[in-house]
Amino acid sequence: MNLTQIYENEQKSLNRFKLLPHSFKKIGFIGLILSTLAVLFFRFAMNDAAILLSVSAKLVLVFMLIISISKEKIEDEMISKLRIQSYSFAFVMGVIYALSMPVIDFLVDSAVEMQSSDYSEMSSGILLWFMLAIQIAFFHLLKSLQS
User: Fold this and answer.
1) How confident is residue 40, by pLDDT bands cut at 50, 70 and 90?
2) CA end-to-end span of the chain, whole Å?
3) Checking phi first, is residue 119 left (phi over 0); if not, alpha (psi -120 to 50) or beta?
4) Most buried residue, 1, 13, 89, 101, by CB count within 10 Å?
5) 7 in a structural domain
6) Tens digits of per-residue pLDDT, 44-53?
7) Which residues cross the membrane (predicted)?
8) Does the residue 60 lie in any domain?
């Protein structure tokens, strides 16, 4: 198998991934608002709702993903390029965030408490939320700058 065939096979496998229809974007936004309100409610109004809080937080991620992978009304090559740029930017920012935040938290905790603080890793949910939020925001920013 030569390089051209390998490249063509990779292109075919990449083309199998299809975006959700545009109508899912509206579902994603409504679900995101409702699940965010549920997170706030379970966080501040109910003290013993850890499972419901966790489920609501996971739903926030699911609805953000739905928004992220839903088509635009007009899906052309420019939108595809902007989508790729926003995913790339979100990935790079996610790596920087994942590497820097534990160190920053450690330094701030040590400075505030004036004693040695424990180093802790961040949760994957926070990192996923950050990356999806950056991707959605950056995609819409790039899209608005193009028009």
Assistant:
1) very high
2) 44
3) beta
4) 89
5) no
6) 888 778 889 8
7) 27-45, 51-70, 82-104, 124-142
8) yes
Does residue 97 belong to any structural domain of this protein?
yes
Longest pairwise C-alpha distance within the chain: 62
- Residue 41: both structure tokens together: 């409610």
Are residue 57 and residue 100 in the same domain, yes or no?
A: no
Query: In whole angstroms, what is the distance from residue 76 CA to residue 94 CA?
Result: 27
Distances (CA, A) of 99 to 51, 96, 107: 29, 5, 13
Tokens of 25: 């974007």
**Residue 35 token pair:** 């699940």
45 and 88 fall within a common domain: no
Residue found under tokens 């790729």: 84
> How does pLDDT run across 111-147, given as a tens digit for each residue?
777 666 666 677 888 999 999 999 999 999 999 998 7
- List the beta bridge partners of residue 20: 70
Match 């701030």 to its residue by tokens: 108
pTM, 2 dp: 0.81
Neighbours of 143 (CB within 10 A): 15
Same domain for 79 and 133? yes
The verdict on 35 and 66 lying in the same domain is yes
Do 60 and 76 reside in the same domain of the chain?
no
**Residue 123 tokens, joined:** 């949760």
